[in-house]
Write a structure and sequence with these properties.
alpha+beta; 23% helix; 2 helices; elongated; two-stranded antiparallel sheet; disordered N terminus; 7 strands
């Protein structure tokens, strides 16, 4: 499954979310030494997002079934671009979710949350700093 190459430098006309913190430096004309967009972990995330979303959907379905609720997830097929001096900035949602009714769930910190209506899903596969090497299993 090929992944589209995204230019992550304002100088190359597009800036992805992995390098958004570098925006100010680039707009000032300063060289950015810590561009993480092509590191193995970031690249792996591009491939893992669909699998993470499927796992999330599976686990959430079990919670919703217990509470007699349903949900629908939609993955947008396009992003949004905003013009800036010298190029454009791109942004896209990983997914959107809509619940049929409010549900309660307990997070990994043992805190209870209520989810209802429609919201955005942002997928992260973080297990350390973005510059950490990807472990080989």
């Amino acid at each position: 499954m090929p992944v589209n190459i995204i230019h992550t430098s304002l100088k190359r006309y597009e800036l992805g979310s992995s390098t958004l913190p570098n925006l100010v430096q680039e707009l000032k004309g300063e060289e950015v030494a810590d561009d993480i967009s092509n590191l193995p972990k970031v690249k792996a995330g591009k491939y893992l997002e669909p699998a993470i979303l499927n796992l999330f959907s599976h686990d959430l379905k079990e919670i919703c079934d217990q509470q007699k609720a349903t949900f629908k997830i939609n993955v947008p097929d396009q992003g949004y671009f905003f013009k800036v001096k010298g190029g454009k900035i791109g942004s896209s949602l990983d997914a959107k979710i809509r619940f049929s009714k409010a549900i309660s769930l307990v997070d990994h910190n043992n805190e209870t949350h209520k989810l209802s209506g429609e919201g955005n899903i942002e997928i992260k596969n973080f297990s350390g700093a973005a510059i950490d090497p990807v472990p080989l299993y």
